[in-house]
Amino acid sequence: MKLIALIIFITTYVLLLSFPRYRTYLSLLSAVLFMIIGIVPLNKALTYIDWNIILMIGGTMGIVNLFIESKMPALMADVIIDRVPNIKWAIVSLTAFAGIVSAFIDNVATVLIIAPVAMGVAKKLNISPVYMIIAIAISSNLQGAATLVGDTTSLLLGGYAKMDFIDFFFFKGRPGIFWIVELGAAATLIILLLFFRQYNQPIHLEEKQDVEDYFPTYLLVSMVLLLIIASFIPNKPNITNGLICITLLAIGLFKELVINKNNHALNITLLQIDYETILLLIGLFVVIGGLSEAGVINDISKFF
């Protein structure tokens, strides 16, 4: 049984790398195979899924979409650009801003927020946006590892290692991963200043983005604060962080539907959630559970 489980896992891993467009289906297919063969008992399959992480991802994605729709990120970017003297500092500032946002928002969503601003700046100055977009993407990807809610991988790490929000800053009395990431971010900003040293064209925005609804911003800030507070609560239910995120999303949707009378908010927000990633993780949770059930993970840990 161990050999069969290992063969299925390795095959799945290779296929995930070879066909990334179909990774969700491959993950779910592998999970189904584990159940059909009997490696994972049907009555235990759902117990291997970390519902706290699933709820955190779904809730965070929904809140982020409301935040993006409110136009607040675009306004923040506009304010930053309007306060810098030239395009060099605009690029560096946007890159730093992307990193800060990505520490609390999914990487892809962060790039979707910042990239249009960079494209607009490049078009206005008649320069190529390629280097700007690359810099923003790299900064976003790096800073996603800085906090518990910065990226899916951070959520997975926090879930398996039983880490809370504060643990990313100080873990067992020592500086956490956040500070290492920030050292890397500081180094990248110095490199960007050198790389874009010839981009000294002046820049000024004639008008800034208007924001009519600040409530999604309050939701996002509340999510971060509540996750921090939850970090200090001992013996809390394992699903606490997920419930915080999904509850705040429900509050945001309630306000849009009932108070703002925005009947399209529910469809727009729910459609923007990355269900493929959620299903991918559900499949992988079952697969990893199958490896554990077969004793493969225990054997690997003994080997190391």
From TrEMBL:
Location within or outside the cell: Cell membrane
Q: Which residues cross the membrane?
A: 26-42, 49-68, 88-118, 130-157, 177-196, 217-233, 239-258, 278-297
Q: At the top level of its lineage, which domain of life is listed? A: Bacteria
Query: What membrane topology does the UniProt entry give?
Result: Multi-pass membrane protein
Pfam families the UniProt entry points to? CitMHS (PF03600)
Q: Any idea which GO molecular function terms this record carries?
A: arsenite transmembrane transporter activity
Similarity comment: Belongs to the CitM (TC 2.A.11) transporter family.
- Family matches, as PANTHER family: P PROTEIN (PTHR43568)
Name of this chain's protein: Arsenical pump membrane protein
Q: Which organism is it from?
A: Caloramator australicus RC3
